[in-house]
Structure formats: C-alpha cells, structure tokens
Amino acid sequence: MESQQKQFLIGLPAHGKTTFLAALWHVLSTKEVATSLEFARLSSENKHLNKIANLWADVQPVKRTLLGEEKYVSMFLRVPGSCHETEIIFPDLSGESFVDQWKNRQMKPEHAELIREAVGGLLLIHPDEVMEDDWIPDILPIADSIIHDEESGSSTSVLGLSGPLDTPENPTTPGWDPYKTPTQIQIVDLLQFVAELNERRPIRLAVVVSAWDRVVDTKSPDLWLERYVPLLSQYLKSNPETFASEFYGVSAQGGCLKDADQLRKIPCPSRRIRVVRSGDPESNDITAPARWVMG
Amino acid sequence: MPDHPSKEEISGKERSSPEEHAGVGVNTNDVQENGENSGRRALVPLKSGEALTAQEAFSITAASRTRLLVIAGAVGSGKTTLIASIFHRFQKGSFGGYYFAGSDTLVGFDERSYLARIAPGREVATTKRTMPGINRNLLHLRVRKPDLMEPARDLLFADLSGEDYEEFKDSPDECRRFAMIARADHLIVLVDGSKLIDPATRQGAKWNAGMLLQSCIDSEQLGCHSQVDIIISKWDLVDMATDKAAHSTYIDGMKKWLTQLFGPRLRRLRFFEVVARREKGPYEIAYGLSMPFKSWVEDLPVAAPGDCPQRTPQELACEFDRYWGRRLCSNRAGA
C-alpha cells in the first residue's frame, strides 16, 4: 500500500530549514536511532538530500538554499510496524522566498499548490534570528527618554540633543523597510497566507524552535514562543479551528559549528540531535514533528 | 512521483542540467516574475497587508459584526501613535484581556510603527503621520478571549488625519459627508495633553473637542445611540508637570463642561488619560488603554428600550435615522 502526503516547510532566511532536512534524511537513511517514522525505500532522485546529509554528518556548514536553488524533496516513509508507505514531499525553499511573499505579496504557483494540497507542515524559527519590535521608550533609561512626536512638531532628542524632524516630507526620513519588520509579524502573515490558501481545517502545524541548544532560559518550546514571539503564540492559541499546533525544540546539528571537533567525536551522528516536546523526555527523534503532522 | 508541476510544465523548456533536479526536481526559480508571458504560470497574489479602504474592508464587515472605531483629533494629538501602541502591546503579550487573533493589515500597522523602533542612528521615536485625503485609512485587528468560548472579534480602526478633523469640527456639512462617524461603534476623540498644560493653547484644545462633538451632533452623525470616549493623550506630560494640580483643575473643568453640554445627547461619554508612548515618567506603552480597549471590543451601541426618546416619522426621515433604524431592526432580528 502506498499513499502520498505533502507537508509544507516554512521558515525565514537562516532559520534552519535545510539543516533540519539534512539531519532528517541522515536519521532516516542510516536508521541509527529509533524514530517514529522510518525509511521505506529510496525515491527516484535523492542527490540533493544525500549532498546536504553528508555535509551535516561531517559537521560541515550546510549551505542555505538560495533563490534559484530551490527543490522539492520526497521521502518514502512508514510508521514502524506498518507496511503502509507514505511519500512525504517537502519543499526546500530559500528563506528569501518567504520574505518575498511578505514583501511583494505574491507566491509562486507551485508553492501555493503545495499549500492547498498539504495536510499540514512545519514552521521553523531560529532563536538567534528573531527581530523584535523594540520601541525606543522600551529600552532607554526613563530619565533620558524625551521623545519627539512628529505630529506635535516639537523635537527633543532622547539623548538631550536636538533631533531632526522625521517627517514624511523630510528626505532624511528612512522609508519603511519590509526586511526590518519584526520576525513574528512576518511569520503570522505567512501563516495567514497558508490559512487563506488551504481550506482544510484544522491545518496541522508543527512549530519547530531550531537550534534548541541555544535556548538556555526556557524549558519548553511552547513557553519559548510565549516569551519571545508572543504575537505568534497568541495567534496560534486563538485560532485552534484553523491551526492545530504542536511545539518542538530541535537541535538538528547538536551544537554550534565552532564546536565541530567536539561534535565529530560523537560516534553516531544521529545521537547529536536533540528533540524536545513539552511533557516528553528528550530524544533524537527528528522525525517526530513530521509524524505528528501526518495525524 | 508527486503531482506538482514539473519544470517543463512550468516553463515549457527542457531540463538544463541534472543538478537542478535533485529530490523530485522542480526548480521554482524558472517561474517568471509576473503573468505577462502566457506560456508561464502567473504568481499567486496575496492580500496586500496595507491599510484598507472602506470597500476593501467589506469582506471583513460582511463576515462578522465588526467593531468600527473612528479616531479623531487635531494634528499631533497622537491618533496614529495610539493605534500603533495597541498593536505594539499585542507584540508583547495579551492586551485588555484579549489575544491577538489576526489582522489583514499587518503591513499597515508596521508602516505606522517603524519610526518608533530602535535602529542604528535613530535617537528619537516618531510616528508616520496620516496624510489628509487618503482614504486607505482602515486598520484591521482580530482579537479573541483566551478562554476561546466566543468567536474572534474584528475591529476596524479608522485612522483619520488631523486635517480631516479640522474640517469636520468647522463644518457640519463636511462632517455629514463623512458617513463613517455615523457608522462608528465608538468615536474616540483625542485631546492633546501637552496642549492642555500650556496656557497659550489649552482653551483651543478644549474648544475644538467641543466643536467636533457639536458638529457631529448637528450633522446627525452622533446621537443618543453614540458611544464617545475622550482620550486625554500624552498624560505623562500632564502628570509630570510641575504645576500638576492647576492643570488637573483645568482638565476637570473641561470634563464637566463637555459632560454638561453633550452627555445628555449621547448614549455614553467617558474620559480616559492615556500615554500611548511616553516622553516622561515610568509609563508603559499604551498606558491607560487596556480598559477602554476592552470596552471597544465588547460594548456595542445597541439601544435599549427607552434609551432614545420616541421620534415622529418626520424626525426619522433624515438619512442618519434611516440608517440607525435599519441597524436597530437588524440588531433586533439578530437577537
């Protein structure tokens, strides 16, 4: 028996999508550790997956997917003990293509088609790549925070110096730059695009906090979302009819590349991986998010 | 093999190299950037994310009982900052007892906030002004209570320019042309706190707020169904002023004056002291807005029996009352 399932993979640039796919393919193809999905057979073309998985296994930098190098990859998988094969198709899109969706408000047709047909997907967020919406009054010492309001026409610098008027007519006023929009706003809009295109309800969404080894102050990935991307956390909590979500912390590489020598000493590369889900013991099962999305 | 389109289907070309076809092998970069070439598939357009026109907002208002909040105030009173500060608070957590549940205008919110954000070389926080005459001025916010017992609620903020405010207060005819006030669930009038503490400007600030209400009532944009909130903005400047007691006395007098003149002619008239973005003192962003925001979400101007005086059919003939009559009927039918 065989069936096909599509899952989307969303993530802004450098949020860990390709590294995740590389580690996933290594774990599946080597069967070094127990997983909730296992490899059934090769698909007709595996060059891209083999290439990135080899780099990952040797703790070499896995080159990010750039615009123009985008691929769809397929994996024939099955649940352990089952003879039912499922072909899971992931897009390995560049993060820039998602920024492009946010900026230019359009999507490539094949990606839109995949989203329409997908049972659900994975959203990757790298904790070091989150741009926040910090307003100047949020962070400056109170005594110094004398702020100009353009509408009022008065202007006193935060640092006690006269500041230039930032009016729209003033050529020194920087224009709005969509690349500098806080990460969680961009991600919420990407999910709203998904909700607009995919009429399945609810859409199964595994939220993966990548580079989980970098997170030291939060015990579980859902709490990390609440703390560091609260707009996204609220959006998912308040839309359970649209998104059924589960949260994972995944360290696909197992640590920083600057510690590559240490990581290479681990004899079984799959054991470098750390996967955390609230309430579950830590494991090496990087297939868990995709298995959960399958339903 | 998957059934998504192959490169050949997309571009009509032969595969150029096996390198492009790792995995199941579709290179998406060959898709052209627009739909001009009929041989290729067009990009799929997504919602613009910008502030909406009234027409564009129809898909929202048609789908749910949307709360319309009209924000009015003089140039510089902080209308845009007020709206941006509410969205900023949602970026830090729930606000007014509600979760953020979505928005069709995330670009619009960000365009109004970015000048307040920390950036290299930026020492002062500003807000991009709403320019007069631009009708793309509706910002959308969807919120939901954390217990999820009720569906999400949609809000539309009408972000009006200070110049429009001036015209409306000076002319009931201009005010009448702007039908949005009559349709508003809440009219929010900002009075600039920095003007109220300056003896050279405070009479004008008070008078202008009164004139706007008078103009709206005379043009029948406001009436006994209307919920009006007067927001004294930049309250930090009032609170931190050296002669705060004298300013408070003046402001209390203004509240009494407005209440006596307009309170009986409106369903509700309230006053709030707000610091959307502090200049002085220990105020969080959107200080004082949590409570009014909650009521903007929850309080609908449904007239209870006896709220409005009985009117003759002749009195009901004006356009505004016809609108209100329709609305009452629909509310009763909905109930």
How does this structure look, described?
- The complex is a heterodimer of chains A (295) and B (335).
- Chain A is α/β, with parallel strands linked by helices and 295 residues long.
- Chain A has helices spanning 17-30, 47-57, 95-104, 109-117, 136-139, 183-197, 221-228, 230-238, 260-264, 288-294; strands spanning 2-10, 38-41, 71-78, 85-92, 106-107, 120-125, 203-210, 243-251, 274-277.
- An eight-stranded mixed sheet of chain A has the order 2-3-4-1-6-7-8-9, sandwiched between helices.
- In chain A, a hairpin with a 6-residue loop joins strand 3 (71-78) and strand 4.
- In chain A, helix 1 packs across helix 2 (47-57), helix 6 (183-197) runs parallel beside helix 8 and helix 7 crosses helix 8.
- With 335 residues, chain B is α/β, with parallel strands linked by helices.
- Chain B has a single domain (58-299), classed as Rossmann fold.
- Chain B has 13 helices and eight strands.
- A seven-stranded mixed sheet of chain B has the order 3-4-5-2-6-7-8, sandwiched between helices.
- In chain B, helix 5 (162-170) crosses helix 9 and helix 9 runs parallel beside helix 11.
- Chain B is globular.
- At the A-B interface, helix 2, strand 3, strand 4, strand 5 and helix 4 of A face strand 1, helix 3, strand 3 and helix 4 of B.
In short, what is this structure?
The complex is a heterodimer of chains A (295) and B (335). Chain A is α/β, with parallel strands linked by helices and 295 residues long.
Q: How is the secondary structure organized here?
A:
The complex is a heterodimer of chains A (295) and B (335).
Chain A: E1 2-10, H1 17-30, E2 38-41, H2 47-57, E3 71-78, E4 85-92, H3 95-104, E5 106-107, H4 109-117, E6 120-125, H5 136-139, H6 183-197, E7 203-210, H7 221-228, H8 230-238, E8 243-251, H9 260-264, E9 274-277, H10 288-294
Parallel strand pairs in A: 1-4, 1-6, 6-7, 7-8
Antiparallel strand pairs in A: 2-3, 3-4, 8-9
Chain B: H1 7-11, E1 44-45, H2 58-63, E2 67-73, H3 79-90, E3 99-102, H4 106-113, E4 138-144, E5 153-159, H5 162-170, H6 172-177, H7 180-183, E6 186-192, H8 193-196, H9 202-218, E7 227-233, H10 235-239, H11 244-262, E8 268-273, H12 290-298, H13 319-334
Parallel strand pairs in B: 2-5, 2-6, 6-7, 7-8
Antiparallel strand pairs in B: 3-4, 4-5
Helix pairs in contact in B: 3-4, 5-9, 9-11
